[in-house]
Amino acid sequence: MIVLKEIDRNNFFDVIKLKVAEEQSEFVATNLFSLAQAKAFPECVCLAIYHDEVLVGFTMYCIDDDDHEYWIYRLMIDAKYQSKGYGKVAMEKLIERIKEDIQHRVIYISFEPENAWAKQLYEKLGFVEDGRVIDGEVVYKLEY
Predict the structure, then answer these.
(1) For 38, which of 3, 44, 56, 98 could close a Cys bridge (C-beta 3.0–4.6 Å)?
(2) Which helix or strand (DSSP H or E) is residue 56 part of?
(3) Whose CA is closest to 48, among 35, 37, 40, 57?
(4) Which fold has domain 2-143?
(5) Which PANTHER family does this chain map to (predicted)?
C-alpha cells in the first residue's frame, strides 16, 4: 500500500539519499535541493512516498505564488523501486489530497519534453497539455 508521509528528523536523511535512475537525473532536481527550496518557499509541501514501511520516493507540491493554483513540482521514485506502479499510485494519492481543497479546480505539472516516462504517466492520470512551455518544460493540467 502506498502512503504519503511528512518528512521529519526520522526520515530526512533517508529521503535525501533517494536517487532516480542515471538516465533520469537530468529531469529531476535532487531531493536535497527540493527540501531546501521548500524551506525558502514555505508554501511548498514535501512528502515521502512509502510502500508499506519502505521509503520508495519523494514528492513536492504547492500553491504557486504567481498564479495561485496547485502545481506538482516534484515526483521521484528511487531507481530500485521503479517500474512497480508506485509513481502512478503516489500521484493518485497526491491528486486526491489536493482535491480536498475545493476552492481550486485545476492542478498543473510541467516536465522536460524529452521525459517520455513522465508524459505517459501524466496522460494516464488525465493530465492534458495546456499549450504553455515554461523554462523549457511543457505544462500539463488536470481539471476536476
Answers:
(1) 44
(2) strand 54-63
(3) 57
(4) Aminopeptidase (3.40.630)
(5) ACETYLTRANSFERASE, N-ACETYLTRANSFERASE DOMAIN-CONTAINING PROTEIN
pTM of the model: 0.92
**Four-residue CA torsion sign, 99, 49, 122, 71:** positive
C-alpha cell of residue 123: 496522460
pLDDT in tens, the chain (144 residues): 999 999 999 999 999 999 987 777 777 789 999 999 999 999 999 999 999 999 999 999 999 988 999 999 999 999 999 999 999 999 999 999 999 999 999 999 999 999 888 999 999 999 999 999 999 999 999 999
- Cell numbers that stand for 69 in this block: 493554483
Identity of the residue numbered 47: L
Cell, residue 8: 521529519
Residue spans per domain, the chain: 2-143
Burial of 74 from C-beta contacts in 10 A (0-12 / 13-18 / 19+)? buried
Q: If we measure between CA atoms, which residue out of 6, 5, 7, 2 comes closest to residue 17?
A: 7
The secondary structure of the chain in percent helix, strand, coil, rounded to multiples of 5, reads 30, 35, 35
